[in-house]
Amino acid sequence: MVPLEWVLVLAAALFCTGLYGVLSRRNAIAILMGVELMLNAVNINLVAFWRYREPTAVTGQIFALFVYAVSVAEVAVGLALIFAIRRTQDTVVLEDIDLLKG
Amino acid sequence: MTLQQILFILVGAITLGAALMVVTRRNVFHAALFLILSFFGVAGLYVLLEAPFLAAMQLFIYVGGIAILIVFAIMLTREVMNPAAPGANRQWGSALLVAVALCGVLGWMALNHDWKVTPGPVSADSMANLGKALVDPQGFVLPFEVTAVLLLITFIGAVTIARER
Amino acid sequence: MSIFDITFNLAWLIPLFPFLAFVTILLFTYRNRRLSHQLAIGGIAVSTVLSQVVFWAAALLPAGGGQHAFESALIPWLPVGLESFSLGVYVDPATAVMLFMVPLVCLMIFIYSVGYMQGDPRYSRFFAYVSLFATGMLGMAVFNNLLAFFIFWEIMGTCSYLLIGFWYEKKSAISAGLKAFLVTKVGDLFFMLGLALLYAQAGSLAYRDVFSPQTLEHLAHTGFLGTQFPVAAVIALLFFGGTVGKSAQFPLHVWLPDAMEGPTPVSALIHAATMVSAGVFLVVRSFPLFAAVEGGIQMTIVASIGAFTAIFASIIAIAQNDIKRVLAFSTISQLGYMVAALGIGAYVAGVFHLITHAFFKALLFLGSGSVIHGLEHGHHVEQAFQPADVEQPSQPAIFNPNDMACMGGLARRMQRTFWTFLVGGLALAGFPLTAGFWSKDEILAQAYASSPAIFWVLAVAAGLTAFYTARQICLTFLGQPRTSAAERAPESAPSMTVPLIVLAVFAVGLGWAGIPEHFPGLGGRIPNWFGHFVGRTIETTHVVQPTTGATPGFVWQPLALGLAFALGGLALGWLVYGWKPVQAGEVDRVERAFRRVWLGWLYNAMRDRFYCDRIYQATFVRGSILVANLFHEFDRIAVDGLVNLAGRASQAVSRASDWLDVHVVDTLVNLAGRAGRGLSAVSGFFDVRVIDRLVDLAGLGTRAFSSLTAVVDVKVIDSAVDGVGDAVLAGGRFIRPIQTGRVQNYLLLASLMVLALIVTFFMILFLRI
What we know:
The complex is a heterotrimer.
Chain A: H1 4-24, H2 28-53, H3 59-89
Helix pairs in contact in A: 1-2, 2-3
Chain B: H1 3-24, H2 28-48, H3 52-76, H4 92-111, H5 126-135, H6 141-162
Helix pairs in contact in B: 1-2, 2-3
Chain C: H1 3-9, H2 13-27, H3 33-60, E1 70-71, E2 75-80, E3 83-87, E4 90-91, H4 93-116, H5 123-142, H6 146-164, H7 171-202, H8 207-210, H9 213-221, H10 231-246, H11 255-258, H12 264-273, H13 275-285, H14 287-290, H15 297-318, H16 323-343, H17 347-385, H18 410-413, H19 415-429, H20 435-450, H21 452-477, H22 484-487, H23 494-509, H24 529-540, H25 556-579, H26 589-596, H27 600-607, H28 612-735, H29 743-768
Antiparallel strand pairs in C: 1-4, 2-3
């Protein structure tokens, strides 16, 4: 059996990789990809805890399924937003979009 | 080291490696391809964690849906991307610091906490139970239905936002 | 179940296929002409095959004791009160021969229509209608109760209306369709009354129940409305009313000549071969009812009307110039023959003539259609070659392709049409060895044995039939063409001539199936299949044998006289019209002869169909319009008057209340208003003088106080407030750079905060505790 800690560490690493992607990438779509990595990491965490703490229940897997659903929704809307931004600002580099500058 | 552990390390390495490629590649299309690889890796992890249904769903939804969508989006926005531009923005240093710090904190926490693991066998009809739980009135039917509404709203919202005026 | 049972059980499929064709054409294939006619022909072809199967199964059924008529399992289909009408299939020999003839003739006519109706814009609709009509005819023959019979009878009536008025741009066609519908409806009314009476007396309308011996006995001995007159006779006469309408007997014959406005295949199908014979078939089907009362008056009436119609129509036919109208009156006359035959009890002969007539009359109509088509084609060709304003001498001013005066000499140009038409005409006239000869001869023989009066009337009618047939053939085909259109008339397409040939074969060959045994020479050598087969129908109903059954030995007089009249008529016709061919523009020779002997008025009457139409117009039509106007006036004066009265009454009431309101109520209200105004003037005065003085004084004091506080406020308080505001602005300017507007910066900050929170949380939770 793989120790639970290994899985959790892997999930944490994945999460932080995703976080780095979100914070540092220029292309908006690349940021979205980072978000997906984070969500995957979360899912791994959920499934790991399900497997190692309560394998007979279904709660863990259900939670993961809902995370899937939500992530799908978020990607769809996110890409729609990127298209909308691209249409008005003619760029997808998030760094150049500072319309809310105070 | 049992076979499982070796497999786990392998799959984990692939996943993590691909993820690192995702966040560092300058060519965003390459990044998307590495993302698909990392999704496959995660699916493999699910299999190792004895959740085959989720593994299949991972492939369906992420690889077959989201990744494809992302690739489409990349294709449609190619002309506004300058291929020579750097992949990272100006705050990449601070971002790296924050990410590493967070990883360290989380990792340290994970390793030094007693998680009270109770490893038992996964029930044989876990998938059937899963299905039943989704439609059980005392189970998760409400979130299920709400999710359906959410997806509907997403659909409408995405179309509305992305529409040509 | 034997093979026969299975076959007969499938008989209900026979009317189904044309119906499916009808529905499919109307709904789906309307635009595709070829597919439409293929569907229609396919449907009727399937029905033909099935009908032939049923017919031969019925014919080969071993004649044993007991049930000769097959009836299938009954399906309850129409709940009526506590019971329900049941629908089933009924196949007896009469049904079987109808099934033999009807789909076959229909098939020939459908194939013919492909050629005839080509180019018509409503091509598909035509085929849909005729398919529906075929459904009606076949359904009428196949089902087992009188209600279904009536339903399909009406379907045929509707199709007749639709098809007569098919070219509805012509006003004459519309009128003809309406006329047909209304006149036959008069007959249908009687039929319906008969059905109602029968149902009331017998409790059922199924053949099995109605024609059972017990029911017939009961009906024959029950008096109608308390009189001695048996109810069976009343019902029979009411049914016969339907026949008079549908089969165009006098006096309801007036619609059939006008029905020739429809396309020729329609005339052939409906008004020669099938629909009009439906009326005769009604008598055939309900024959036990007619024969239930022995020596009853109903048979006499039937025979008399039939015989009178036969001779009446044949007289008129002599004076007609339109090729189709001649055939129309000929049809009426031949139907009269059939009706008369049934009236004298010659059941088998009547049915036989029905079948043979269908074939040769259809043949004649289709042939006339071919002639008309050829003439129209020739006319168009002629128009193309010659300008229209060049007057052709000795030609009718308006070209009418139906008019026989425009024909002539077509035998050379339209050979197939000529020969088949000749065969049909000879069959009609009763020339020996044609089918018409056998069937007509049998009727004459039976008539001779039963009633001399009927016999002589029918014989003279036969002679006249032969005469006008010869006239028609001579005028149309022999001699020289009388117009240039006739010169150029081409033979018709094979799709039109092949059915003619097929029908001609039947017109000759069918007769050989029904030669009576007593006939010298041939009789007995060739068995009388038809007679035995159809004769079974009456045997099974245990009805009194027809009064003119097989006479002992052979009687030569009717045969000789019949032959004499037929051949004599033909010869006379040829002498008058054919020996010296008729020239263009020549007045009709019979007409000339009549006028010379001061009988011109008679000829005019014949040409104008003995003024039946005018009489009906003057009496029934005008009468109905008069009654309608009367009711209209009543409605206008009486009913509308009442309504207007009610309206005016309410108007008066409202005017009264208005006056009341103005003069009484308003006065009171105004009075109250004036009183109020006076009161307010008084209080206003009081308010101005006293109260305002006090208020002004208080105001002065307040103003002094406020100017004092203003000074304090400006000097002290405002500086404090402004100072705070400036401080805030400075602080904001300091913090402002944080808000870069870039999402990722915010995210970075957020992550930093999260990290800090985690560390803090962790330290609190895990280190301090």
